[in-house]
Amino acid sequence: MGLVDLSDRCWVEVKGGDSKKFLNGILTNNIQTLQPKTGCYSCLCTPKGKMIADLFCYNCPPLQPGGRSENYFGIDCSSKLKLTLLETLKKYIIFQKVELFDQTDKWGTCAVIGPKVNGEKGLGDPQCWPWGFVRGPHGNTEGQDPTLSLRANYDYDFVEWEGFKIWMIRKTMWGLPAFEMWVARDQLPSLKSKLNVPELDPETQEVLRIESATPLFGVDMDENTIPQEANLYTALSFNKGCYVGQEVIARLEHRGHVGKQLRSLKLEGDKIPQRGEKIFSEDGQEIGTVTSSCFSPKFSSPIALGYIRYASLSLKEVRIGNSTANFL
Question: What is the span of the domain harbouring residue 313?
Answer without folding.
Answer: 259-327
